[in-house]
Amino acid sequence: MKLITAIIQPHALQAVTDSLREYGVSGLTITEVAGYGRQGGHTEVYRGAEYTIDTIPKIKVEVLAENADESAIIDLVLAASRSGRIGDGKIWTTDVGTVVRVRTGERNADAV
């Protein structure tokens, strides 16, 4: 099992979720997050005062998937979220040892 995590721009969320749903992903987790990468923060002026915003709002999408689906899901998220500009985000995977569905007690592939 793999946990596929993607940090994407908020405007790309609908395209990513539509692509994953069309592929057959049955569940995902979406979290509003903030951070920075190479683009760093930026400065803004509000009522004449300049201030620095150190973090940029992003969306974290997490999908639990079979090992065989890892590459396809990464490619779908990449295609749906890439604009070609700095700050598009990151995608990474993590090995998952055990998955348990709380309601039924099913484990691993049966729990997904």
UniProtKB/TrEMBL annotation:
Record's keyword terms, sorted: Nucleotide-binding, Phosphoprotein, Transcription, Transcription regulation
Entry keyword annotation includes Nucleotide-binding: yes
SMART domains in the record: P-II (SM00938)
Gene3D superfamilies with a match to the protein in the record: 3.30.70.120
InterPro entries per UniProt: N-reg_PII, N-reg_PII-like_a/b, N-reg_PII/ATP_PRibTrfase_C, N-reg_PII_urydylation_site
Residue ranges of coiled coil: none
SUPFAM superfamilies referenced in this protein's UniProt entry, alphabetically: GlnB-like
Quaternary structure annotation from Swiss-Prot or TrEMBL: Homotrimer.
Name of the protein in question: Nitrogen regulatory protein P-II
